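Much of the work behind modern protein science is quiet bookkeeping, done one molecule at a time. The fold becomes a row of whole numbers, each drawn from a learned catalogue of backbone shapes. The protein below has been through that process, and both of its lines are reproduced in full.
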Amino acid sequence: MNTWLGSVRIRLQLARTRAQLLNLTEAQLRDVGLTREQAWREASTPPWRGVPGRANVPRQNAKAAHQAVNAGHAIDAA
């Protein structure tokens, strides 16, 4: 059961992170090495498909994109 619940949590976080890519500015996307098209494709990927960084974003950019989105979360929460 814990494995299933953990998987659901990961997928929900993945969906939120992917959706937040659409809120990044062009400058932020450039900083993480993504184009607007790549961000849109990643954001439109269903949460049950793939893991972060493997759907449509090159692997080397996945961590930077995730950090940029989480940095935006910190700003929104303040």
